[in-house]
Structure formats: C-alpha cells, structure tokens
User: Which sequence fits this backbone?
C-alpha cells in the first residue's frame, strides 16, 4: 500500500472493503428487515468460532473510496449496516457522515473493542470476552447481542447487561455450530429472565447472505 492510500485509510476516507450486499437482516432487533450491508476488513479480536475469518486481514481487501461505497449503498436501501471484521478498527466518521448526508439510517455491528467513531442511528454491541468493549460504548448501545457458545456465556451476558442503559434491547444468540445444544439453555434462561430475547441467524435458514 503506497503512502497516499495508507493516509486515506488511516483517515477513513478509504476503507478495506471486503464485500457489500443488499439482503434481509438476519439477526437481532431488526431481523426480517431489508438492509444494505457494508463489510469492512480488519479484526484482531480473534473469535475462534467466527464465520467470517476471511475478514480479519485488512491487507487482503482493496482500499476503496468511501464515495463509491456510499453511492452503491444509497442506490439500494435506506438502512445501511456497517459490519466486519471489526469496523471500529477504522475511523468511521467520514463514512457515516457521507451516508447521513444522503438521509440514510446507519447501523453498526461491533465488539466495542475500539473507540466509538461515527454517527449512528443504531449500535449493536456484541461483546467478546477475549477483547472486551471499551467502557464508554456500553451506554451508547441500543442493542446488546451476546453470542452463546457455552453455558458460561449466559453468566457473561448477565454481567454485560448490567453495563448498558435500561433502554438497551437484550439478545442471546446461539453460535451456529453448537446451537442444538445451546438453544435449550437459552430458552430456559429467557423464560427465567424475560428482559432478554432470543436471536437466531435466520439468514442461514433462509440461505441468503
């Protein structure tokens, strides 16, 4: 990467774009709604069960001018979801400002492991034990989505829920490879703790991106 491009990436006017696609939101609060997804490369959180490990290395994804990203997004949907990888690896302010200039609703899916940049209509915080969220993001989160890989993640979820605002929507989502084992634990937990809701990766059942 030459110095000029690297500077633009560091500033957030170019981003390592892995993929962009229009689909149905499959998880969490907005399940079932249409949205345009922008998947940004780069993540060092390193979840062993991650289903997009190809997003981790930003060098394998082309630095892309945010103007072209915004133009594509605006032609498809009013709701734009920025995901990764870990999008907060990069400065999200230039991208979100450009999207907001087009009167678009801008959402993020993040582990919260890096400083919160950007202007957001919806923040889905999905904390990971191996690299915890920074303290300041908890009160900004509209949605807390905890991935449940084992029963200990239920205790982790409960502890994390004490850090978010009272208006934050709470979701437990079984990790795909172990969902048959985890769903009974999750359903029992939600019935005992009705402030929580179940999230499933419905896009995988629908066989869509």
Assistant:
């Amino acid at each position: 990467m030459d110095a000029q491009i690297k500077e633009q990436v560091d500033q957030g006017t170019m981003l390592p774009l892995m993929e962009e696609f229009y689909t149905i939101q499959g998880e969490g609060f907005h399940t079932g709604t249409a949205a345009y997804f922008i998947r940004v490369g780069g993540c060092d959180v390193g979840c062993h069960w991650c289903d997009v490990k190809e997003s981790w290395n930003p060098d394998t994804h082309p630095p892309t001018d945010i103007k072209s990203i915004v133009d594509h997004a605006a032609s498809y949907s009013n709701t734009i979801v920025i995901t990764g990888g870990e999008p907060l690896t990069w400065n999200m302010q230039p991208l979100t400002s450009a999207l907001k200039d087009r009167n678009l609703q801008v959402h993020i899916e993040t582990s919260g492991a890096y400083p919160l940049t950007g202007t957001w209509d919806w923040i889905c915080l999905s904390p990971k034990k191996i690299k915890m969220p920074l303290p300041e993001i908890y009160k900004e989160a509209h949605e807390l989505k905890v991935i449940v890989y084992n029963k200990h993640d239920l205790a982790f979820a409960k502890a994390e829920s004490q850090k978010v605002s009272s208006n934050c929507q709470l979701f437990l989502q079984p990790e795909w490879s172990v969902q048959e084992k985890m769903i009974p634990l999750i359903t029992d937990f939600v019935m005992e703790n009705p402030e929580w809701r179940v999230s499933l990766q419905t896009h995988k059942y629908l066989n869509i991106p």
About this structure: The radius of gyration is 17 Å. The longest strand covers residues 14-24.
